[in-house]
Specification:
Length: 135
């Protein structure tokens, strides 16, 4: 059976062989594009999930912070501080905490690698294969 297959391939014209090679390369490129799409979809899903969690957490924290801000401002006023000064002090502290949390969330999103590593690796392998196959 193997000899028969080799004999059929030896009897094929150069044009047929290049046609086969062209089809194989087309299939390979199509498969690589599919792989890249799947890989990028996974990464986009992770980003969307983390962004959603960030938004929900931020909204809940915001509601809680508003209540605590009112509590602290009213407490400082009860202790004898002027209302404007109480609001200013609390506002500065809350702004600093908010900025730190926003930076933490942004840093977490930036750490997600968007490069389709598996696709890049297989493209390099395909390039090596093509170099060794095409004279």
């Amino acid at each position: 059976m193997m000899i028969e297959t080799q004999h059929r391939q030896e009897g094929r014209s150069l044009g047929e062989l290049f046609g086969d090679l062209s089809r194989e390369i087309s299939n390979l490129v199509r498969d690589e594009v599919t792989l890249a799409r799947v890989e990028m979809t996974r990464k986009a899903t992770k980003i969307a999930k983390n962004a959603g969690i960030l938004a929900i957490g931020g909204a809940l924290a915001y509601a809680g912070v508003l209540a605590l801000i009112a509590f602290v401002i009213l407490g400082l006023i009860e202790l004898g501080l002027a209302a404007w000064l109480s609001a200013l002090l609390v506002g500065v502290v809350v702004t600093a905490v908010g900025a730190a949390l926003a930076k933490k969330g942004l840093d977490a999103i930036k750490k997600i690698d968007l490069i389709p590593e598996q696709t890049v690796r297989t493209l390099k392998e395909d390039e090596e294969w093509a170099k060794s196959t095409i004279p």
